Each structure stands twice: as structure tokens, then as C-alpha cells.
């Protein structure tokens, strides 16, 4: 049991180190929290819908699939293009967003799922660091796997819900111009990650 608790503690620390770094999900949370304090929870739900089957695949021995070069290239190119598209969509909707009138093409849960599924580094992380953690709890069966997944998701949920709540409660104090600038920043951040994914995929290809 002490080993299991130590493993869950390491999961908490590793998860926090990942979720605290600005990335596509963070930028998405900032933009969607203009409209609801539950944006963070909705994004995590989309994230879980993608992550759960990946965790199960790794548990049952398919971690190597996510390390295949052609899989990483395909996800890097397709994911990069999609994330750039979503980032440009944010920039285009900046004026409506500043007035709390933005109408997004994809709902928040779907967008959260897309940010996970189309992020090649997310899959590589689970095929390496994540697979190591899964192996550590494998002796405890599905109960240990469930504890690992729940710990990881609670960290994501706590941080993104905090961000979402703060943004929702304070964004009206920023002024429309500041809100517009923040929205542009989120869009540019997403587009930058998209470019980075594409470049990474092309490097693997070449």
C-alpha cells in the first residue's frame, strides 16, 4: 500500500508539472471561460473521453503503437493543421468574444477532446512516462489503474476549474479591449503550437 501511495504521489507531481505549463488546453480554457465558469470542467471531460481508452490500451499492452513513427507523423500534421484552424477561429471571433457574443463552431467538450486527440506529444507522453506509471500500478489490477487515472484527472480538473472560475469572475473587469487582446493571444498560442506540431512531424518524416 505504501508503494501505491508513493506512486499516486508521483502521478500528482508529474500531472501538475504538465498541466501548469501553458499549452493548447490552457489557451482553450482561457477563451471558453469568458462564457461559463464550467469551461474547465467541460474541457477536462473531453480530455477524459480521449484519455481513458488510451490508458486502457497501454494497460493491455499497446503502448508501442503510439511510438510508431508514422503514427506520430500523421498526428503531428493533422493535429497541427486542426489546432491552427481553431486558433485562427479564435482570433476571428475576438470582437464578439470581447462582447460575450462569440459563437464557436465546436462545443467545449468536443474542443477539449480535439485538443487531446490531435496533440502528438500527449500520445507520446502516455506511451513513455504514462506507460511507466501504468506499469507501476499494474500489480494492483484495474483498481490500481482506476486510482492512477482518477488522480491524474483530479489534478487536471482542479487546475483548469480554478483558471476557468477566475477568468469568468474577473473578465468583465478587464475592459473589452483587454479581453480582445487576451483572445488574440489565446488564438496565437494555439496557432503557434499547431505550427510546432507540423514542424515536428515534418522533421520525423524527413
Automatic annotation (TrEMBL):
<keyword id="KW-0472">Membrane</keyword>
<feature type="transmembrane region" description="Helical">
    <location>
        <begin position="43"/>
        <end position="62"/>
    </location>
</feature>
<feature type="transmembrane region" description="Helical">
    <location>
        <begin position="109"/>
        <end position="127"/>
    </location>
</feature>
<feature type="transmembrane region" description="Helical">
    <location>
        <begin position="147"/>
        <end position="168"/>
    </location>
</feature>
<dbReference type="GO" id="GO:0006865">
    <property type="term" value="P:amino acid transport"/>
</dbReference>
<feature type="transmembrane region" description="Helical">
    <location>
        <begin position="68"/>
        <end position="88"/>
    </location>
</feature>
<keyword id="KW-1133">Transmembrane helix</keyword>
<dbReference type="Pfam" id="PF01810">
    <property type="entry name" value="LysE"/>
</dbReference>
<protein>
    <recommendedName>
        <fullName>Arginine exporter protein ArgO</fullName>
    </recommendedName>
</protein>
<dbReference type="GO" id="GO:0005886">
    <property type="term" value="C:plasma membrane"/>
</dbReference>
<keyword id="KW-1003">Cell membrane</keyword>
<keyword id="KW-0812">Transmembrane</keyword>
<dbReference type="InterPro" id="IPR001123">
    <property type="entry name" value="LeuE-type"/>
</dbReference>
<feature type="transmembrane region" description="Helical">
    <location>
        <begin position="6"/>
        <end position="31"/>
    </location>
</feature>
<feature type="transmembrane region" description="Helical">
    <location>
        <begin position="180"/>
        <end position="199"/>
    </location>
</feature>
Amino acid at each position: 500500500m505504501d508503494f501505491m501511495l508513493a506512486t499516486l504521489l508521483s502521478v500528482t507531481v508529474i500531472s501538475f508539472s504538465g498541466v501548469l505549463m501553458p499549452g493548447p488546453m490552457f489557451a482553450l480554457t482561457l477563451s471558453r471561460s469568458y462564457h461559463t465558469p464550467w469551461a474547465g470542467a467541460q474541457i477536462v471531460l473531453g480530455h477524459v473521453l480521449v484519455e481513458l481508452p488510451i490508458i486502457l490500451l497501454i494497460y493491455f499492452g499497446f503502448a508501442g503503437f503510439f511510438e510508431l513513427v508514422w503514427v506520430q507523423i500523421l498526428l503531428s500534421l493533422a493535429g497541427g493543421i486542426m489546432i491552427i484552424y481553431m486558433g485562427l477561429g479564435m482570433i476571428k471571433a475576438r470582437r464578439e468574444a470581447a462582447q460575450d457574443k462569440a459563437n464557436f463552431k465546436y462545443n467545449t467538450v468536443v474542443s477539449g477532446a480535439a485538443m487531446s486527440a490531435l496533440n502528438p506529444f500527449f500520445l507520446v507522453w502516455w506511451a513513455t512516462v504514462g506507460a511507466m506509471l501504468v506499469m507501476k500500478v499494474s500489480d494492483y489490477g484495474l483498481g490500481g489503474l482506476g486510482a492512477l487515472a482518477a488522480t491524474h484527472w483530479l489534478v487536471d480538473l482542479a487546475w483548469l476549474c480554478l483558471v476557468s472560475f477566475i477568468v469568468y469572475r474577473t473578465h468583465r473587469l478587464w475592459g473589452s479591449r483587454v479581453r480582445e487582446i487576451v483572445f488574440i493571444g489565446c488564438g496565437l498560442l494555439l496557432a503557434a503550437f499547431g505550427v510546432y506540431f507540423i514542424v515536428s512531424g515534418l522533421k520525423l518524416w524527413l
